[in-house]
Write a structure and sequence with these properties.
Blueprint (H helix, E strand, L loop, with lengths): L1 E7 L4 E7 L1 H4 L4 E6 L11 E8 L4 E2 L5 E2 L4 E8 L6 E9 L4 E10 L2 H4 L5
Parallel strand pairs: 1-9
Antiparallel strand pairs: 2-7, 3-8, 4-7, 5-6, 8-9
Length: about 120
């Protein structure tokens, strides 16, 4: 199981790309799904608009290259800043094995995050 923590403004609608290259070694992700048993099923105020894996080689702005099947992406928005959400993405590898990526998502209250104390 892999674990990732994401915090964002609940009004934002952002993409997150999670590089699994080191953890996967020579293996690749061939299939994925959000686990219907995860706590997300009851989180009506949180929206996942996209989940995906790179089916082609990716190159980021810094020139780093990510081989096919090594990066999982998720796009999140919404949520209640008083809640913490656990999202489990179950993925299958080209070896036939499966594993979970657990994302802990914590929306923050923008009024508090950027408040200046004098």
């Amino acid at each position: 199981m892999l674990l990732e923590l994401i915090t964002q403004d609940p009004d934002a609608n952002l993409n997150y790309w999670l590089d699994l290259s080191r953890e996967l070694g020579s293996l690749t992700v061939v299939d994925f799904a959000i686990d219907p048993e995860s706590e997300l099923a009851e989180a009506t105020e949180l929206t996942i608009t996209k989940v995906g894996v790179n089916y082609s080689e990716l190159t980021d702005d810094d020139g780093n290259v990510y081989p096919i099947g090594k990066v999982l992406g998720i796009k999140l928005s919404g949520g209640n800043h008083e809640e913490t959400y656990v999202i489990t993405i179950r993925f299958t590898l080209n070896s036939g094995e499966s594993d979970d990526l657990v994302i802990v998502f914590k929306p923050y209250d923008p009024a508090i995050k950027y408040m200046t104390v004098h």
